[in-house]
Structures are given as C-alpha cells and as structure tokens.
Amino acid sequence: xxxxxxxxxxxxxxxxxxxxxxxxxxxxxxxxxxxxxxxxxxxxxxxxxxxxxxxxxxxxxxxxxxxxxxxxxxxxxxxxxxxxxxxxxxxxxxxxxxxxxxxxxxxxxxxxxxxxxxxxxxxxxxxxxxxxxxxxxxxxxxxxxxxxxxxxxxxxxxxxxxxxxxxxxxxxxxxxxxxxxxxxxxxxxxxxxxxxxxxxxxxxxxxxxxxxxxxxxxxxxxxxxxxxxxxxxxxxxxxxxxxxxxxxxxxxxxxxxxxxxxxxxxxxxxxxxxxxxxxxxxxxxxxxxxxxxxxxx
Length: 297
Fold this sequence. Notes:
Layout: E1 8-11, H1 17-28, E2 32-37, H2 40-52, E3 56-61, H3 67-81, E4 86-88, H4 104-131, E5 137-141, H5 144-148, H6 154-174, E6 180-186, H7 200-207, H8 214-219, H9 225-236, E7 247-251, E8 254-257, H10 275-284
Parallel strand pairs: 1-2, 1-4, 2-3, 4-5, 5-6, 6-7
Antiparallel strand pairs: 7-8
Helix pairs in contact: 1-9, 3-4, 4-6
C-alpha cells in the first residue's frame, strides 16, 4: 500500500467536492492535512470528518488568491504539524459565460482564484522547499476545458490552460530542488458540474443515492470526487518521484495522460513568407491535419 505517514499536505478548496475527497484520501493514507476553505463551517466540517475517520487535520480559513493566503496555509501546516510536504492547489470558482456576456468582474474573479491562486500557492511552496532543502510535491488542477476549450467557459478555460503551462514550466524550474509539479485534469460529478444543464439531473440522482450510470462512469470517464482522490495520493507519494511536468486525467473508470502541445505540420519557403504563399501552403500542406476544439459527451 502507498502510505504518506509523516507527510503533511495542504489542500485548498477542501471544504467540499474534489478537494474534500482528496483531503480525506490523503489523511487515510497517513498524511496530516490542512483543510483550506473560504467558508469556516465547510472547513470545520471537513476537519471533523477526517478526525472521525482517525485522521489528522487542521483548518485554514482564507480566500485563496493572494500570497498572504498561501503563506497562511503553509504556516498553519507548520504550526499544527511541524512540517509541510505537499501542496494541492485545488481551490476554484465558476462564472460561466459566453465571451460577449463575460463581465470584467466575472473574468477577474475566476482568474484570481484559479490562476493567481495556483501561482501564489506554488510560489510559497517552492520557497519553503528551497529554504529548507526539502523535496516536496506540488499538485495543480487543470481541466479538460483547459486542454481543449469549452463553450461558455471563457475565463475558466483560460485559467486552466494557464495552469497546464505552469505545470510544464515549474517542473523544469523546480527539478533541481527535487520538487515535482504535476496537474490533474479531473472529471467528476460535483456541485460545480451540477450547474451545467445536461448534468443537473444526473448529479441530483447521485445525491439521492443512485449509482453513476455505466455510460457516464466508463464511456465518459466521469465519476464521483472520490474517484479522483487516489491520484492525489499517488502524486504525493514517493512512488511518483520520477513523474513531473505531466497533465493527468482521471474520472470514473478512466485514467489518462494528456499530450503536450507540439507542432504537427511544417512548411518552409526560402526568403520567408508572403500572405499568398501562406494561403497556398495552408491549402496544400498545413491544413491537412486541422485540429478540433471542445469536447463532446
């Protein structure tokens, strides 16, 4: 069994959903967990649930986004448990709108929590690991929308694509310190997913105790938050020491590895390109492999 005894993890946005499932799984594997949430009642309830299961947990009530919030979470780990080993930057919000209906306020709120919050949590973590000459784990949260785009998710897809880029850049920058950086692309029936009309009734049925339909669990690779949690445990463990810079999908019965962007076609023209030459090349060479966008359930 993979054990995380003596390790201490911070999980942001852990009061519910995937964050809560991850915090409980990490605690069951032996880690002490700092449960962050912006709502004190959610954080306290999560801590009580973990302790009732025999785990160790402490709350850190703060809105993720600023450097001070990230530092507070790590300081809570050090105060409560004497060390810090794993950062799980999970906190996020949705403000789904098509482009023309996305307000500045909606865009800024999503970017602040997802993108800036991930940046500040990772920055505080690597500063701690470097200062203490300590190997550690940084686990980020990207999304299928960040890999392929999704209608109506201007801010969210931008933030999650940025987090995928963070993963690749930070994996290189943190390697010398012995710190791995990976991103999870989860696919789970959460309260956030329930806001998507096609999943509203499915989430409601599951909440009534009905099983996730096979077609959703297997074919769509979408299950419960608890189906995502084992990947947090693996990436926090010594077994994943050689895994870094990866975007890993998980949901329901499916585990996947997302390909990094790469050039798939190329053409050359001595002396450079004119608009007409680009048009000719596009019609004969480059456009032979057009790339799709979005995803279909």
